[in-house]
Amino acid sequence: MLDAWNALGQLLVNTPGVTYRSRSQMMGLYDVEYRGQRILLLTRAHVLDAGTHDPSTLVQATGADGKPDTSTAALDLLRQLQARMPAELQHLSTLPDKAVTPPRKKGKRR
Known about the structure:
Largest sheet: 4 strands, antiparallel
């Protein structure tokens, strides 16, 4: 799940029209704005079972109320991310571990 979360962060900061607001690694969450709409993107690991041999992660768009976001903006952003995620995961897997860091919000450090 961490690899998918890192890849998602890299894709978000490099997607035109996306404004990065905040993130929470522990919650697997990115808070972004896209097309003037606030979208929360959650990453959730799938449990492996007898039929599943590769780990996978679900990326879900929700509103601030926690309900699935099925707006045009959210669905468009999810389609873009789904198309680009495999290549980004492959790219990140070729980098040394220290080179993969999630994007940081600009501002003062506490």
